[in-house]
């Protein structure tokens, strides 16, 4: 007996009406019927149903015997439609068979199992009015064919017999390599059979458990509710299909929860989209569960652990390292080969690899290099670190590549343009100066192709060291040409007096003090310091040694410059004079930001006890245009005492994070913060400040009116604008430095200071 139900989406077959020896898909599909009754399918079989010679291919779902009384229920899967006088069975090629019938006729359907089918269903009108019910009956011949498909050589099963269907699970069929022999195929069958539960062909095969429930604790009782993301219509179809499959598989269920999270589609590498749920807002308020992890060292120390690091493992580890450092991986240098140097840098290290290649041969490494970055280098911009990696690598491989044409390969595209830029920082300029003796071209490659050198930069071998600066001749000056310093001391009248006192026996207290503070070494005056003897620098040439330790060393800050100076030199008030020199350095003025906290204060509007003296105004909108053509709402409110208290608290909070700004006066010369302008050039090399300008008026509340300096206009259009103190920094100006009149405190005159 069969039943035609046009309200059903699928065709179902009782388990006892199906030949169980025929292979079918194991599909756990949840079906819902009238009264929200549910049943679970056992499997699915692609079959053919023939009704009066009209054949229809359809998926037949096999259900347990208790799920239905009829042997087969035929639903819309057969593309059957009807009206009050006929039953229409549609073929796939759009041909139809129209069976005329009367209401009192009976349909007898013959199947392979020699059963009959009564067709009894509600018409479309009865779906609205349940009191009306119409029955159609007529004799039709129906034959159900459960098709078996042939297996080609590329499909293998866990059964010893050949598979009859490509879609079998529990009797697995999968494409395999045609080159496998019978024995290998048999091994594969056994492997699949032993791990049958590991394979799933869809959501229905994944399975689920209710033995354990996860409890999510939140930091707030307020429900996390998010509005759905707006998806394209094509994506909506994918989401609907995925949700339906998850629901039918029993993985998700209907819910009236006050919590909701939006759905997103993520593109998969293999093509298509994967549906995901955006739980970021929920995760943000979820209490974290901290579970102690087992210490791996303790695990390794357990006696019953099979893994140990002993002499055998150490030999294997050393063997891998040795293989990387010998032929055929590492090759001997050949002066006739072509060379490439691959470089990379990270915050913790610099690295380079020297490669060589010959015609018709693969490129092989000749030498590896990596070192740690210093504390100062770790503060460099990534662009500067990449440039430093090139400088250091070429310095290391200098003996191999000097005088030859070679290629430098890096993953920093900006580095490729470094050699062509006119406006560069002093540090980059000195590095370029060091590279002038080499003949090379720079090639850029994406980072994924530079992993071999990237791993070296993240695991540096050698310790950090100080970079030798090109054209830094101060050390050479006082070490190799110390006669220059002697001649300078002899021309300074105060130092010449000290020299005469040191050459004789002291008689007065002043002379004894000079002998305690100074000492002659190779007829040169040295100052006694805790670290040893330091050469005394005459007043007239102090600017030169300061310049060598500041300008030529990369425009270091105060402490770094002092560190270099104090290694070799001494002069009075060194810190104050070095600070004065650095503050007046033009390169530092334009290129360096102000350090420390923000120089600013929050200034509230002055409020007088006069009605409507101060009014707070706010606006809302735009809104849809009103009949009068308005789209905004202005809200005015008199400044009340409560608002004033709130603003005072805001000022206190802001001022705690800042410092009192420097106070300027009319006539002061300043620089102002440069606003970024899109010129097509790299902003990394543009000055941070512009100017100088002169202050022509003070407005109060740290506001100033600036204009061009007369005779030093910056542009053809006169400049005049208002700037606050936090966007300004002082320009250099002369200030007197007091000098002690004693012989030991030499030097006099004015110094440049900001």
How would you describe the overall organization of this protein?
- The protein has 754 residues and is α+β, with helices and mostly antiparallel strands.
- It has 7 domains: 144 residues, Cathepsin D, subunit A, domain 1 (Beta Barrel); 52 residues, no CATH class; 85 residues, HIV Type 1 Reverse Transcriptase, subunit A, domain 1 (HIV Type 1 Reverse Transcriptase, Chain A, domain 1); 138 residues, Ribonuclease H-like superfamily/Ribonuclease H (Nucleotidyltransferase, domain 5), CATH 3.30.420; 111 residues, Endonuclease III, domain 1; 58 residues, no CATH class; 68 residues, SH3 type barrels (Roll).
- Helices cover 24% and strands 23% of the residues.
- It is built from 20 helices and 35 strands.
- Strands 1-7-2-6-5-11 form a 6-stranded mixed β-sheet, with no helix packed on it. A 5-stranded mixed β-sheet has the order 18-17-16-19-20. Strands 32-31-30-29-33 form a 5-stranded antiparallel β-sheet.
- Helix 7 packs parallel to helix 10.
- The longest helix has 16 residues.
- The protein is extended.
- The C terminus is likely disordered.
How far apart are the first and last residues' alpha carbons, in Å?
A: 104 Å
Number of domains: 7
- The total count of strands amounts to 35
CA gyration radius, whole angstroms = 44 Å
Stretches where pLDDT is under 50 for at least 5 consecutive residues are 80-86, 90-138, 147-171, 471-481, 738-754
β content, as a range?
15-25%
Count of helix runs: 20
Estimate the helix proportion, in percent: 10-25%
The largest β sheet comes out as: 6 strands, mixed
Helix-and-strand structural type:
alpha+beta
CATH domain class of the largest domain = Mainly Beta
In CATH, the architecture of the largest domain is Beta Barrel
Could you please say which CATH topology of the largest domain applies here?
A: Cathepsin D, subunit A, domain 1
Q: Tell me, briefly, the overall form.
A: extended
Mean pLDDT: 76
Strand order of the largest sheet: 1-7-2-6-5-11
């Amino acid at each position: 007996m069969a039943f035609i139900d046009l309200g059903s989406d699928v065709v179902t077959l009782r388990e006892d009406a199906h030949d169980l020896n025929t292979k079918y898909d194991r599909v756990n599909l949840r079906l819902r019927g009238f009264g929200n009754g549910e049943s679970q399918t056992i499997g699915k079989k692609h079959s053919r149903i023939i009704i009066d010679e009209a054949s229809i291919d359809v998926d037949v779902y096999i259900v347990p015997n208790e799920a239905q009384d009829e042997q087969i229920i035929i639903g819309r899967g057969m593309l059957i439609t009807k009206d009050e006088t006929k039953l229409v069975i549609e073929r796939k090629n759009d041909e139809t068979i129209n069976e005329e019938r009367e209401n009192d006729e009976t349909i007898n359907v013959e199947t392979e199992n020699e059963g009959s089918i009564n067709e009894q269903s509600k018409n479309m009108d009865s779906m609205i009015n349940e009191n009306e019910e119409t029955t159609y009956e007529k004799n039709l011949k129906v034959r159900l064919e459960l098709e078996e498909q042939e297996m080609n050589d590329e499909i293998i099963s866990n059964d010893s017999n050949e598979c009859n269907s490509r879609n079998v699970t529990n009797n697995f069929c999968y494409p395999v390599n045609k080159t496998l022999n019978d024995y290998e195929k048999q091994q594969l069958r056994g492997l699949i059979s032993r791990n049958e539960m590991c394979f799933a062909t869809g959501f229905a095969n994944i399975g689920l458990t209710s033995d354990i429930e996860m409890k999510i604790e939140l930091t707030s009782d307020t429900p996390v509710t998010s509005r759905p993301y707006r998806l394209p219509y094509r994506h909506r179809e994918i989401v609907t299909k995925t949700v339906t499959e998850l629901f039918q598989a029993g993985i998700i269920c209907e819910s009236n929860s006050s919590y909701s999270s939006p759905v997103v589609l993520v593109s998969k590498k293999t093509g298509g989209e994967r549906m995901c749920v955006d739980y970021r807002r929920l995760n943000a308020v979820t209490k974290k569960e901290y579970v102690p992890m087992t210490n791996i060292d303790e695990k390794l120390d357990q006696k019953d652990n099979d893994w140990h690091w002993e002499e055998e493992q150490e030999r294997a580890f050393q063997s891998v390292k040795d293989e990387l450092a010998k032929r055929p991986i590492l090759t001997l240098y050949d002066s006739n080969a072509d060379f490439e140097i691959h470089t990379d840098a990270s915050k913790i290290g610099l690295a380079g690899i020297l490669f060589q290649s010959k015609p018709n041969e693969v490129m092989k490494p000749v030498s590896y290099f990596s070192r740690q970055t210093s504390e100062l280098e770790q503060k460099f911009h990534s662009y500067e670190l990449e440039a430093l990696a090139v400088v250091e690598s070429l310095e290391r491989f200098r003996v191999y590549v000097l005088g030859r044409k070679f290629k430098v390969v890096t993953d920093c595209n900006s580095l490729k343009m470094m050699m062509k830029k006119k406006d560069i920082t002093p540090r980059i300029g000195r590095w370029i100066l060091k590279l002038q003796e080499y003949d090379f071209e720079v090639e850029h490659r994406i980072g994924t192709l530079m992993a071999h050198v990237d791993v070296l930069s993240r695991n540096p071998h050698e310790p950090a060291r100080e970079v030798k600066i090109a054209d830094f001749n101060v050390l050479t000056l006082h070490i190799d040409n110390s006669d220059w310093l002697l001649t300078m001391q002899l021309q300074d009248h105060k130092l010449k007096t000290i020299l005469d006192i040191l050459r004789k026996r002291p008689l007065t207290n002043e002379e004894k003090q000079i002998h305690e503070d100074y000492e002659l070494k190779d007829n040169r005056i040295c100052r006694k310091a805790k670290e040893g003897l330091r050469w005394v620098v005459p007043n007239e040439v102090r600017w030169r040694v300061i310049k060598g330790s500041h300008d030529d060393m990369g425009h270091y800050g105060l402490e770094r410059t002092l560190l270099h100076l104090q290694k070799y030199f001494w002069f009075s008030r060194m810190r104050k004079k070095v600070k004065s020199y650095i503050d007046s350095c033009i390169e530092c003025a334009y290129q360096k930001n102000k350090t420390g906290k923000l120089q600013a204060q929050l200034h509230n509007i002055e409020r007088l006890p006069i009605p409507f003296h101060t009014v707070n105004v706010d606006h809302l909108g735009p809104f849809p245009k009103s009949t009068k053509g308005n789209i905004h709402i202005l809200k005015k409110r008199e400044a009340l005492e409560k608002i004033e208290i709130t603003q005072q608290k805001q000022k206190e909070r802001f001022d705690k994070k800042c410092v009192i700004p420097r106070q300027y006066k009319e006539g002061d010369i300043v620089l102002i913060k440069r606003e970024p302008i899109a010129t097509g050039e790299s902003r990394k090399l543009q000055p941070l400040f512009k100017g100088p300008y002169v202050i022509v008026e003070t407005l109060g509340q740290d506001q100033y009116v600036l204009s061009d300096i007369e005779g030093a206009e910056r542009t053809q259009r006169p400049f005049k604008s208002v700037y606050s103190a936090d966007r300004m920094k002082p320009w250099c100006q002369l200030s007197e430095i007091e000098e002690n009149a004693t012989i030991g405190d030499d030097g006099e005159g004015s110094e440049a200071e900001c």
